[in-house]
Amino acid sequence: MKCIQVLFLFLQIFLISAEYQNLLNNHEKLHKHVSKSYNDAVCQSQLAQFSQALTESQEWAVRLVDTWAKVGAGYLSGNTVNLGDFDSCVKFRYENFQGQHCWVTISALPNSTFNNDTNNIYLKKFANFLHNNKIEHVQNGFCLPASCSPLAIIEFLNLNFLSKNDLAASKAQCRTNDIPSLEPLDYFAIVFFSFITLLVIMSTTYEIKMKHNDRIEEANRLLTSFSIYTNGAKLFDVTKIKSASSLNCLHGLRAMSILWIILGHRYYKQFPWGNPNQLEDFDQTLLSSILKAHLLAVDTFFVMGALLLTWSTLRDCEKENMNILRMIWRRYLRYTPVYAAMILIVICFEKYFVTGPYVFTSLRDNCVTNWWMALLHIQNYLPGADMCLDYGWYLNADFQLFLISPFIILLIHKFGKKLLALPAALCFISIIYTITISVIFDMRYRTLDAGQGLENFLRWYYYQTPPRSGPWFIGIILGYFLYKNRGKTIKISSWLNAFMWIISLSAMITVILLQHGFSISYNSSTAAHSLIIALQRNVWAVGICWIVFACQNIKTGGFIRWFLSLSQWQPISRMGLSMYITGLVYQFFMMMNQRVPLFANAWHVIPILWSDIVAITIISIFFYLIFEIPPMKIEDYFYKKYQNSKKLAIKSAQI
Q: According to the UniProt entry, where is the signal peptide (predicted)?
């Protein structure tokens, strides 16, 4: 125990004392290495100036070193991230010397062993500590000249005090507080968003003026498309539709699903955690299974999307008002403007919104490269690491399924319910396909933490449309029965009703528990994992179908039906798409601005979850009012105008 205490005492002074002393003792050698290793004259000069100032104990150099990360507690608990004083570092200025914060990954060399014959006993002990305890790497913050590139920083650290002590820096991510320069696309984004803001102001002012003059009926619908006055009133309208055919319970399902996704994203995307090992312990609990199961909420969206499409298509068929091209075009307009606006914000403004030490470079870089695939809704076949806003896979899969579904529904309408065998067969094919790829790639929930197992899971199963299509086809079947029984109340025995509720809820709970059980199981076979991966989402979808059908046509469900049908769910339900698109980007921006790791503790996490919900809701209000509703209203205006002109032309021809 005393040895461990001594070791940690040595570790505590590793960055502030040991390295400082090492630099003092090796100033001339350091200067020699700098001169030989780097071509950047400014970097060489400033590193030499820094080392000389340390030799002379000048205040500015000591203040710079004081911002470096210190060895902290909790390495064995997984707390391997220590940023140091980020803000003081990037604000540091001395003459022409500007501080640059570098988040450096340091690991022990494989052959690390302790001996007293070493350049620095503290570093050697630290390397031996990492090696013996199988700690893959630590990530510490250093403050060094802004004139040096990350590669130069790595070489500097390795050459002067890491490699000779069995340590190695392998990666550096550096940031300053310089304001990024504007690029041509940034100017376009500023002009675009300014123009949209001006449209909103003018449209709202116009409508308010027309209403004030009691001429609202004369208002041009095109000019009021961007009006917050009307669009906002519709968004926050909680009037409960009492029509027998209204699907009120869908509002509650949609709202609860998006909130579940927001909570799950924060829990599983959060980085860094200050106590990841304790998080792993929590991951073994049943409570964590609820958070893990947030992935099933997307399948609820698939069911509802297919249900509503089937309903509207069958209605249009009966009215002989079917226009497949317009349906597809409106679906594209429904998703794409909000998605495109968020992509533009990430590409152009992420560098201004993110002022913290963490930078997920792929967030912006992937959108610069693959934005066009995202807007065409085809990027879900790319490797996950290359996708622009990878959560957009759902929008891509939904749109692809939307393209083929009207033709399936038309066949069902023409030939009757016997053609429901078609979506059922497609669902079965999806299950077989999923089992096949799960076996081929040996997909197991236990291997989905990182590495190749996770990559295969995401690329070949999670993001792709065929293995995710089962709930959609189940939703088509539900939509058919709901439409054919609209306005009707189906009577079944109380025993059968209770049995169906018990079976459905039990099946959904079982899916959650099985997913949790397999995620912590080491010994389950590939076949067992493949079956649960292939069946879980479809079983969940069937459970959702029963809830909707029972609430809508059987009028049972008690508290569940009442709760899901509350009119207060409607605003969140309407904003579901905007909340989905903006939510994770907001959470990423918040994570990248963190100065210290977050500790997995209810008192820390719950306030953050609530703040996520509030902030994302506020952001989504603006996205919904500005990018989601106006394009649909504009399209509707021009379509009706086209239809009216077409009717006038027909009448003129008849005359």
A: 1-18
Report the distance separating Cα 107 and Cα 394, nearest Å: 38
Domain end (from 128, 145, 175): 175
Residue 451: per-residue pLDDT? 63
Among the residue ranges 301-310, 434-443, 535-544, the one predicted with the least confidence is 434-443
Q: Does residue 499 sit in the same domain as residue 423?
A: yes
Token reading at 266: 């924060």
Residue 92 one-letter amino acid: F
Q: Examine the domain organization and report whether 632 and 559 are in the same domain.
A: yes
201, 241: one domain? no
Euclidean distance between CA atoms 465 and 394, whole angstroms: 9
Give yes or no for a contact between 344 and 189, defined as CB atoms under 8 angstroms apart. Answer: yes
- Give CA–CA dist 394/379, Å, rounded: 10
Same domain, yes or no, for 244 and 317? yes
Give the model's confidence band at 515: pLDDT under 50 very low, under 70 low, under 90 confident, else very high.
confident
Q: Does residue 649 lie in a domain region?
A: no
pLDDT at 17: 38
Structural domain range at position 188: 182-235
Q: How many domains does the chain have?
A: 3
Determine contact, residues 540/508, Cβ cutoff 8 Å: yes
Q: Output the DSSP codes for 461-521.
A: IIS-HHHH-HHHHHHHHHHHHHHHTTT------HHHHHHHHHHHHHHHHHHHHHHHHHHT-
Both 351 and 481 in one domain: the answer is: yes
pLDDT, position 11: 36
Beta strand residue intervals within 31-166, DSSP E: 81-82, 93-94, 97-108, 138-145
Interatomic CA distance for residues 342 and 623, integer angstroms: 9
How many angstroms separate the CA atoms of 307 and 312, rounded?
9
- Does the residue 411 lie in any domain? yes
**436 vs 166, which has greater pLDDT?**
436
Report if residue 115 sits inside a domain.
yes
Which residues contact residue 367 at a Cβ distance below 8 angstroms, ignoring those fewer than 6 apart? Answer: 343, 346, 347, 374, 388, 389
User: CB–CB of 616/584 below 8 Å?
Assistant: no
Looking at 235, 254, 279, which one is the last position of a domain?
235
Residues constituting the chain: 655
Is residue 653, in this structure, part of any structural domain at all?
Answer: no
Q: What percent of the chain has pLDDT over 90?
A: 61
Q: Looking at the structure, tell me whether residues 112 and 254 fall in a common domain.
A: no
Comparing C-alpha atoms, which of 285, 283, 293, 301 is closest to residue 260?
A: 293
State the helix-helix crossing angle for 421-440 and 393-415, rounded to 10 degrees: 150
Q: Give yes or no: residues 227 and 246 share one domain.
A: no
Cα 83 from Cα 80, distance rounded (Å): 10
CA nearest 256: which of 305, 219, 294? 294
Cα dist. 563→296, 406, 596, 610 in Å? 20, 32, 39, 21
Examine the domain organization and report whether 597 and 630 are in the same domain: yes
pLDDT tens track for 239-298: 887 776 689 999 999 999 999 999 999 988 887 888 787 777 777 777 788 888 999 999
